[in-house]
Amino acid sequence: MRSNKVFLLLRLTGSSCSTNVYVEKGYYENGKLYLDVVNTVGASKLVIDANSTVTETDQRQSFTQVLNLDSNKTKETIIWNIGYIFDAGFAISNNLGGGTDVLYFADGPWGADYERNTGVRSAALSIIPEAGYNVVANERHLERGAQFNGDVKNYVSLFRMLRPGNGLTDLSDYNQIEFEASLTGANEIVVTLVSDSVAQWQNQFKTTVSVTNGSLNRNSVDFADFKSLARGKIRRSDLVNVTFSVVGDQSNFNPTTLIVDNINFTQNGRGLGAEDYANNKEENLTVYPNPFSYSTTIDFDAAQASDYRIELYDVSGKLVDFAQISNVVPGVNSAQYTPANRVKSGVYLIKVIGASQTLTQQVVIRK
Predict the structure, then answer these.
(1) What is the pLDDT of residues 21-47, one digit of tens each?
(2) How far apart are CA 89 and CA 51, in angstroms?
(3) Domain covering 10-106 assigned CATH 2.60.40.10 in the classification
């Protein structure tokens, strides 16, 4: 299985396969474009006029490259060592004439999501160019990384689309995501596997990764550890992106730097078994991030419309904090909870209590 292939060769308007030499199909992998070329006239040279970008934010660079063709073959695969790129547009002609084939390739882009000015100030997103990697059997590597710098009060999310144009990706062959991350200004990253078939953000599958210092560290998370309010198994067949979120304290703009790089999907780790599906079906309360330092988001499935109450208990069973949730509607609800300053680091039990319902989950607070 060659899992690092990125398939997207788009034939642009005005170009057609009626040319004498054209690309039938192709893909990009590890700095190379593999082009299946149809050669109907015995041409010996492929002339490529191209422009490309190394990352999503770079300036486009134009260049021309000539590749050799076997004039005795009507079809052959040409390997074009283009280097690590985000996208490329190129026009292909040949030494005997007869038209031009115009094509475009793109990888899935990085992006950032945040509330400008009200939730984040002085935001800056930069893309980390791909430095090279070894192609490993049964693994999929996502090229390039991303870095966010800014002052965060509410949240910021870095997301990596798996394909361009919100295209779906089937990751059913994999059990685990690996990535390098560093974080300053907070201690937890919420990782979300975004599925096209899940309509509400609260129902996407999430997990929390603790980051203890500002240096790049390697992290591995099994798909079985991602939890959701959806009360069903995670669909790995229609994933759109992977998102890395940092939640602020909701009160102050704190300087924050988040770096994510070298993402791999692997067959390591624990596979999804029947017990994982059963556990997910029982979920009706999720808290993320968890552990958390300042503030956390509570998603819960309410049985009816009523006022709800958040209660926080320490390990001895003592009530140490509480908060009210108003305007709760039947179904999925979301609330932001920030414990009082007197609440210290430790393990707690959080309860979400309504008129006919009590939901409970263990949380860890790190200050």
Answers:
(1) 999 888 899 999 999 999 999 999 999
(2) 6
(3) yes
| Digit-coded pLDDT (tens) for 277-288 | 444 444 588 899
Q: Residue 128's Cα: distance from chain center in Å?
A: 15
pLDDT tens for 169-221 read 999 999 999 999 999 998 899 999 999 988 888 889 999 998 876 788 999 99
Distance between CA atoms of residues 238 and 228, nearest Å: 16
Q: What letter would DSSP give residue 59?
A: P
Helix (H) / strand (E) element for 317: namely: none
Domain residue ranges of the chain, discontinuous segments joined by +? 10-106, 110-280, 284-365
Q: What is the DSSP letter of 41?
A: S
Rounded-to-integer distance, Cα 65 and Cα 50, Å: 8
User: What stretches of 162-267 adopt beta strand conformation (E)?
Assistant: 176-184, 188-195, 205-210, 217-222, 239-247, 254-266
Q: What pTM value is reported for the model?
A: 0.85
- The CATH number given to 284-365 is 2.60.40.3080
Are the C-beta atoms of 17 and 99 separated by less than 8 Å?
A: no
Common-topology check for domains 10-106 and 284-365 = yes
Output the furthest CA–CA distance in the chain (Å, rounded). 84
CATH architecture observed for domain 110-280: Sandwich (2.60)
